[in-house]
Amino acid sequence: MSGGVEIPVRVVAIEQATPTVKRFSLAARDGSPLPVFSAGAHVVVAMDADDRRIKNPYSLIDRSADGSTYRIGVLRTPQSRGGSVFMHDRVAVGSELTITMPVNLFPLNRTGRKHLLVAGGIGVTPIYAMAEELARQSVPYEIHYAMRDAAHGAFADELVARHGDKVRLYRDDAREVIAVDRILPNQPLGTHLYVCGPEGMINAILAGGRAAGWPEENLHAERFLAPPGGSPFALTLAKAGITTEVRGDQSLLEAIEATGVDAPFLCRGGACGQCETKVVSADGELVHNDHFLSDEEKASGAKIMTCVSRLQGRELVLDL
Amino acid sequence: MTIQFKNETFRDDFTFSNSPEAIHRFPFPFDKDQYMYAVNIEQHMPGPAKSATEFPIDIDEHYVSEMRDRALVLKADPLRCQSQPHMITAEWDLVELLMESMAKHYPEHFTLTRDGDRWHWINRPLEIDQTFTFGDAATLPLPPMEYVTRQCQGDFCLLDQRNDNLWMDAGIVTTQADWSLDFDMGMNFMEWHGPVPLAHDMGVFDRALKFLLNLQQGRPVRRLNWTMTVNPRLDTSPENYHAWGIDRTTVTPENVGDKVHLRVELQALWRLPRSNAIVFSIRCYLIKMEELVTIPKWGRRLHRVLRDLPPELVDYKGLTRFRDTTVDYLARHDDGAPTSPGFFPD
């Protein structure tokens, strides 16, 4: 329950959007309407695999007009810990999952005069919701959506249908790149930029914004991380007096939850800071993968974000 | 449960008083015999039956008279209600939160019927029957926030969340303990808490802000705050200081039991779904000293809290001119017996 209120849901439709992306429609199992959410929000989906419970954050694409369903988009990433593969291979229409209430760590800045939405690949999911919201409010916006090739543009057709000439598509296979140095310097004052996509793309877009003299407060990115796997290590929870093993394909937070300890979390993507935990001792090197702790905090070794970070070494002792 | 609404005043002749039931449900804010700041935030879960926290939005016997007083304040000073244009979505979120909660928990008094975006709202105590289109401000006689908060006890601030901070970008504030919405409009969380003594050094606001930035939809929180007010005046605003500041000099040993009031704010915070804004509600409860001492535990405890209050807090809360007289009065109701833990009467 540390992640908040949970909603039991059932998968009511699955759409193979591209060779590697599926869109899932989720409805509350008790038939009640799902909560309204703000554009940019995500939910954490809990999946019960054979030997463990996997929890991954997914941005919300939309909510049906009658409130009965949410849509999420999932990219199959075989090298990760198994959540997206589980969603692709094991989840069918009728499957039961659990989601958290929506959480928004990537909100629109409502004081913005204009909004530039930039998406790469599966990063389009929150951007899709933001574009809908901006269209509803009749605020100026542009969408720049980069994809591998036409077949991998999971939302290209829908975006163009809904937003017309506000959408600009870029295909890697046609060597089309988002011309940061041409787009960003010529925006009106008060424009906000939002980028979601692969890490390298986010960094390039943000660097372009800074180079064009944009204020830091007007540059927004969602850097959801899938928790990377690693080598197994021993974990001791000092207060609970529990010792366990964190497997290579398990996140630290998932291993804590598997012991029955109710550890804090919210985004499970290294962004929100809710799972910050004190390190009592570490026999090995802390691998900090989050975007929350400062470089100094990471170097001090006093804290760790359990959702995406782990130990490369023998044993980690946490103040839990 | 049908509430018998009182006809009373919070100005001029000050006829406000609490019934015995209202005294018993007063949200007494001290669970120990001493007071110091803490980030005393807890989940806004339903409290005991008939308590002020039984329902998310508390409506009580003072409802009709408080709404009349709010209308008088707004008539004299429209700047008590302000909203920046980007807060319109949050305003509608607030309409939904308040109407849903009031209709669900007080069905004898309020009814909400929703048919898609067509909403029908009935407020029997204030004799209002309104049909409107949710999301279309032109279908209400007033802007959405002002419309609904003229019908709900408590002050409300809508806090926009951006740049890892909270910004006071809308609100209606007519029952405040000496702070001004007009002054604080557009400020961020750290700015509007600037005047509070001691707490900054304790890191209270850094921790509170971090907590609130991650406040979750469906998981509202609350805290109690308190001060003291001479005469049962809801509108103790800086704008109105000329009218009430002098009251602090009028307390005598003869009138202290009737004039001096403990003023408690039940503050609650909700994450709003459409706007991702936070609504901060500040619901004011007043109780006279002579009403408070009818609960022996509270008389003993308030005596000890006030007697031992740090001087910075005595000044900040504006108690300097009448604290000693009040402590003397309460001392007569403190036999030195131990008090039980917790807020509630024995």
From TrEMBL, chain A:
Keyword NAD: no
Residue ranges annotated for the 2Fe-2S ferredoxin-type domain, each copy included: 233-320
Keyword Nucleotidyltransferase: no
One MF annotation (Gene Ontology) recorded for this entry: 2 iron, 2 sulfur cluster binding
Keywords, sorted A to Z: 2Fe-2S, Flavoprotein, FMN, Iron, Iron-sulfur, Metal-binding, Oxidoreductase
Cofactor: FMN
InterPro entries in alphabetical order: 2Fe-2S_ferredoxin-like_sf (IPR036010), 2Fe-2S_ferredoxin-type (IPR001041), 2Fe2S_fd_BS (IPR006058), Beta-grasp_dom_sf (IPR012675), DmmA-like_N (IPR054582), FAD-bd_FR_type (IPR017927), FNR_nucleotide-bd (IPR039261), MRET (IPR050415)
Entries under Pfam families matching the protein: DmmA-like_N, Fer2
Organism domain of life: Bacteria
Record domain FAD-binding FR-type: where: 4-109
PANTHER family: CARNITINE MONOOXYGENASE REDUCTASE SUBUNIT, NADH OXIDOREDUCTASE HCR
Protein name: Ferredoxin--NADP(+) reductase
Organism from which the protein derives: Methylopila capsulata
TrEMBL record, chain B:
InterPro entries reported in the protein's UniProt record: HODM_asu-like (IPR021848)
Pfam families: HODM_asu-like
Superkingdom as given in the UniProt entry: Bacteria
Protein name: DUF3445 domain-containing protein
Organism: Methylopila capsulata
